[in-house]
């Protein structure tokens, strides 16, 4: 019998959680694990009961969506809410954590970070993880290849269209964006 590894199992959970994201900028999922048990999970979203970016559009200031609580933060706050210790725990995230989440992860006593996708890996975050003796490991996620690569594919196509924008007229560009939307919806 072919059993999936613990790493793939927990990473699958994070990718599943990412599908619940409400911020359209990036769908991220995070799973906190202790002694091979899932103790909390989170995804990119608004405060409970708040409006969703997916309904109202993102609230962007300085190129960041300020409405969203990051997946890692949501998972950690779930532990705070229910009084679950995070000391010595591990976290599985779909994307390399941002600087804010990096600091929260360190401060909560988490000792290992597994991430599936490199995402603007901030040199200071890498430095802080090293300094705090938090192990950071890249785990290639391979159980849902189509879903896992969808965001990268979309980002790549968007990037290509943006590069073409200078050489084409507006209606042609619009048509390309529409076709890409249809393809990825
Ligand atoms: Zn947003
Ligand atoms: Zn973050």
TrEMBL record:
Q: For this UniProt record, give its keywords in alphabetical order, as a comma-separated list.
A: Hydrolase, Metal-binding, Zinc
Q: Which InterPro entries match?
A: APOBEC/CMP_deaminase_Zn-bd, CMP_dCMP_dom, Competence_ComEB, Cytidine_deaminase-like, dCMP_deaminase, dCMP_deaminase-rel, Deoxycytidylate_deaminase_dom
Q: According to the lineage, what is the superkingdom? A: Bacteria
Tell me the Pfam families matching this sequence: dCMP_cyt_deam_1
Segments forming domain CMP/dCMP-type deaminase? 5-132
Q: Which cofactors is this protein said to need? A: Zn(2+)
UniProt entry tagged with the keyword Transferase: no
Is-annotated flag, keyword Ribosomal protein? no
Question: Which GO molecular-function terms appear in the entry?
Answer: dCMP deaminase activity
Say which family it is in: Belongs to the cytidine and deoxycytidylate deaminase family.
PANTHER family per UniProt: DEOXYCYTIDYLATE DEAMINASE, DEOXYCYTIDYLATE DEAMINASE-RELATED
Q: What is the designated name of this protein?
A: ComE operon protein 2
What organism is recorded for this protein? Metabacillus niabensis
């Amino acid at each position: 019998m072919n059993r999936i590894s613990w790493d793939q199992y927990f990473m699958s959970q994070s990718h599943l959680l990412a599908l619940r994201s409400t911020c359209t900028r990036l769908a991220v999922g995070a799973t906190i694990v202790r002694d091979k048990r899932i103790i909390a999970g989170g995804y990119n979203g608004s405060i409970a009961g708040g409006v969703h970016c997916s309904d109202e559009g993102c609230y962007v200031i300085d190129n960041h969506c300020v409405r969203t609580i990051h997946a890692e933060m949501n998972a950690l706050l779930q532990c705070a809410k229910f009084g679950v210790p995070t000391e010595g725990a591990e976290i599985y995230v779909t994307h390399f954590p941002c600087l804010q989440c990096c600091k929260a992860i360190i401060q909560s006593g988490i000792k290992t970070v597994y991430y599936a996708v490199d995402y603007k890996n901030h040199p200071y975050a890498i430095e802080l993880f090293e300094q705090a003796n938090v192990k950071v490991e890249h785990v290639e996620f391979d159980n849902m290849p189509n879903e896992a690569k969808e965001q990268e594919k979309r980002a790549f196509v968007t990037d290509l269209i943006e590069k073409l924008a200078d050489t084409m007229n507006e209606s042609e560009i619009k048509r390309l964006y529409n076709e890409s939307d249809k393809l990825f919806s």
